Amino acid sequence: MTRSPLPRLSLRLRLALWSAALAGGALLGFALLSSWLIYQAKLDSLDARLERTVPPGRPGDRGNFSPGDRSGLPPNPEPDLARDLGLPADAEVGLLIVGRTGEVIYQSPQWPSAIAQISPVPDPTQGRRGPRRLMTVRTPDGPWRVVVRATPMGQLAIAANLDALRQEMATLRRIYALTIPGLLLVIGGGAWTIAGQALRPVRQLSQSINQVTAQGLHQRVPADPDPEFAPLISAFNAMLERLERSFQQASRFSGDAAHELKTPLTILQGELERAIQQVETGSAAQQTLSQLLDQVRHLSGIVRKLLLLSLADAGQMSIQRQPVDFSALVQDQLEDLSLLAPELAVTAEIEPGVRVMGDRDLLTQVIQNLITNAAKYNLPQGWVRVAVNRADSQVQFTLTNATAPLTATEASRLFDRFYRGDPARARQTEGLGLGLSLAREIARTHGGNLALAPSPDGEARLELHLPLSSS
Q1: For residues 109 and 93, is the Cβ–Cβ distance under 8 A?
Q2: Which of 142, 387, 399, 470 has the most CB within a 10 Å radius?
Q3: Region entry Disordered: which residue ranges (predicted)?
């Protein structure tokens, strides 16, 4: 089973998301880089303090310790040592003093057990601030930063737990985690607003395109001061102007042609009727004239439909509105269907007394076109179902007939002018494919609509909606 493609996001949303993504990447990179730089800066500062700091004691004895002599150290030197290192008083700080002969002079209680011993720093003859070594030692309690320095009396090691520094960095990361999403929302919202303002001319253009109908070709899109959209709007307005001019010319031509053909066809029809009465009944001449008269009547019907369609295209179809008993009108046309196709099984459910406000002649033509179409494209020994009922403030006329399954192309072009569908499904009744198109135009002129409704295979269902009469 194939999966349907996911709907594509709108351009405005994509611009906002891309802006937020780019800003998020930049903020995340800034957060990572700044965190690393701040950590390194704090670590360098701690290293500098570790190198400068000496164990607290009497001023004259700082850094001078005799083997086994702790007289120069206070009882608990770690808090003072933490303060000298710029750390909280409760921070874990360790002090280890080893004499020249390797004996331990002093070792803090919290001295990490992982640092069991310290390697001697060479060349201890360079005074109190002789050679030194910095290193980071990993322990179960966390990493410790250790400095080992040589003194005239031996080795001095000061260790500081980096947990306090890591907590500071964790606090900074939490601040980033709280502020960056808020900044991304602000950036995304700002990008959404800016994109909406930037795409405003496009929305106006879309609204104008949606309003382009046969009666709305005179509309124009207001000029936009933005230079990016001005050429597009000018080109669209020029296209509308060309379409309006071409449509008016085509509409005038079809209307004028139909009007000019109407008079000679009427005269020709009258002359043929008179000639038929003058020739011998049943003669070959009368049969020929009858056939010609049928063709003239057929041509007159086509001209009349073309004239109505041209008037509908121009929005000039005039209707004489009056109350019409729609139920009785449909019933009368169904009686004609029994004569047109007596082999069809007709079922009717007509609600009595349904009245509409409209032109009786035009509405009669609509129902006649629909019923004729149902008989023309029906199946042998087929059926027709007709229903008329009220639905809210409208009357709904439903006509369903048996037919061969409609293809997607046939369903989409059912109301196109001069479209007749598959010739194999047509019966002996002739036509030019104008009936359904004209019926829909008349329905729309009355404030209603005609559409093909969904139906099972082997059926065609047309629904006509018209506004009910207020009376």
Answers
A1: no
A2: 399
A3: 52-84
In whole angstroms, what separates CA 403 from the centre of its chain? 38
Give the number of other Cβ atoms within 10 Å of residue 376's Cβ.
21
- The answer to whether the beta carbons of residues 237 and 230 sit under 8 Å apart is no
The strand ranges marked E within 91-182 are: 93-99, 104-107, 132-139, 142-151, 154-161
pTM for the complete prediction? 0.47
Let me know how long the chain is.
471
Q: pLDDT tens across 152-169, in order?
A: 777 888 888 888 888 888
Largest CA distance in the chain: 156
DSSP string, 255-291: HHHHHHHHHHHHHHHHHHHHHHHHSPTTSHHHHHHHH
93 vs 103: CA distance, rounded Å: 21
Alpha carbons 406 and 414: distance in angstroms, whole number: 10
Query: To 10 degrees, what angle do helices 284-313 and 230-278 make?
Result: 160
Residue 213: exposed, middle, or buried by beta-carbon count in 10 A (0-12, 13-18, 19+)? exposed
326, with CB counted inside 10 A (0-12, 13-18, 19+), is: buried
Residue 308 banded pLDDT, cuts 50, 70, 90? low
Residue 398, SS3? strand
Q: How confident is the model at residue 174 (pLDDT cuts 50, 70, 90)?
A: very high
Enter the DSSP assignment of 213.
Answer: S
CA distances from 85 to 76, 330, 359 (A): 16, 102, 101
Nearest C-alpha neighbor of 464 from the set 445, 451, 446, 447: 451
Task: State the Cα–Cα distance between residues 235 and 121, nearest whole angstrom.
Answer: 84
Q: What is the pLDDT of residue 34?
A: 92
pLDDT tens-digit profile of 365-397? Answer: 888 888 888 888 888 888 999 999 988 788 999
